[in-house]
Amino acid sequence: MPRSIGRAAVQQLLQQGAQLVEVLPEEEYRQGHLPGALNIPLKTLTRETTAQLRRDRPVVVYCHDTQ
Questions:
Q1: What's the pTM?
Q2: Among residues 11, 62, 63, 64, which one is catalytic?
């Protein structure tokens, strides 16, 4: 179930093995992204593009919108 969490909770989840996904457009991801983040642009989220994610580990999804 999606929910918003703070920085401390994200760091704790990542230390426990969560997967970090940034849904930024590819160009924005290339300009700067969180260390270790996988890029799956929001407009391309499908069963196929997320197949690389492990279903037995939590997923943290991040998007920084500058607009």
A1: 0.83
A2: 63
- Assess whether 63 carries a catalytic annotation: yes
Residues 6+ apart with CB under 8 A from 36: 14, 20
Q: Which residues of 22-43 are buried (b: 16+ CB within 10 A; e: fewer)?
A: bbbeeebbeeebbeebbebbee
Helices (H), the chain: 7-15, 26-31
pLDDT tens-digit readout, 39-66: 999 999 999 999 999 999 999 998 876 5
Give the 3-state secondary structure of residue 19.
Answer: strand
Q: What is the pLDDT of residues 23-45, one digit of tens each?
A: 999 999 999 998 999 999 999 99
